[in-house]
Amino acid sequence: xxxxxxxxxxxxxxxxxxxxxxxxxxxxxxxxxxxxxxxxxxxxxxxxxxxxxxxxxxxxxxxxxxxxxxxxxxxxxxxxxxxxxxxxxxxxxxxxxxxxxxxxxxxxxxxxxxxxxxxxxxxxxxxxxxxxxxxxxxxxxxxxxxxxxxxxxxxxxxxxxxxxxxxxxxxxxxxxxxxxxxxxxxxxxxxxxxxxxxxxxxxxxxxxxxxxxxxxxxxxxxxxxxxxxxxxxxxxxxxxxxxxxxxxxxxxxxxxxxxxxxxxxxxxxxxxxxxxxxxxxxxxxxxxxxxxxxxxxxxxxxxxxxxxxxxxxxxxxxxxxxxxxxxxxxxxxxxxxxxxxxxxxxxxxxxxxxxxxxxxxxxxxxxxxxxxxxxxxxxxxxxxxxxxxxxxxxxxxxxxxx
Length: 402
What we know:
CATH superfamily of the largest domain: Naphthalene 1,2-dioxygenase Alpha Subunit, Chain A, domain 1
Mean pLDDT: 95
Strand content: 15-25%
Number of strands: 19
Radius of gyration: 22 Å
Structural class: alpha+beta
Shape: globular
Distance between the termini: 7 Å
Order of helices and strands: HHEEEEEEEHEEHHEHHEEEEHEEEEEHHH
CATH class of the largest domain: Alpha Beta
Number of helices: 11
CATH architecture of the largest domain: Alpha-Beta Complex
């Protein structure tokens, strides 16, 4: 352990469980490259990380590439229909493998020497290896990575030791009730190619913060205020085994959703038949740390995927940032004007994002300042306290192994 990391770990507040107030993290947790390297192991290697949707692998042989904690992976659907993840590093000389291009479907070919692997990660071809090829085919395989499926989302766990995923997300199950998942399709988010210049935790904090919308998102979030007439935002309790942080926000009228100018009554995606009265009147914002954000609305479930690239560099893929990231009824996608509706949703989400960008930039700048305070949480920041507790739990467990 280098001295910089040791000093930061020494300043972390104690973890006293999710029912206790978790203080803000030291500013170095957002600015130190050493701490970011520690987080890759403590948070992204040891926990379940979302990599995409099963819809992206509709047929056997379909595959896509993804990076988790800096590790290149291939996610593929095998000939048996099973979805598998594997390390995407050629077992010959370590060249990173990719998907698509001019490769035959269902095969992954290293461009350096054309060593080729099948959908199970087994070596099937290695030119010019002579008599050794038969033995190589029996022994060489891309490393398998533990996977789990949850409501159509694909998760991976690099170290293979995380507790089962589904029980840790039980509190989210009521959000999925009444959505006709069997008849819903995914419009994946366009994959970000330019990182946003702030720490990944700031991105998640902004998403889950119920305090800032009435100030930052004036005009775009007024329809779903945290403090409306009557009851306001609702928070859920969090226990040690939970891997979901939630807030529920009432709308001013039923069946609202994203419009060209943000949240409003004339939703571009039609309300889904069969939802409960509450689901027609509320929005649910769910964070599945460390990298998945979900929003449940009457007409759609939208999601964001995060890929931290550096301590102040985060790839964010969603309708707000890049476009797409929706789970919709098949009937909605089949509407003749769906492209226009989707463009309007993207425009409204983009307006919310345009309000968030300067705030996130300023928050990252504050973390670099000598004047950065210890911080004070208010009652509308319950989810931030829960996120800090979740992080402290992960940090403490990993620190014990150093």
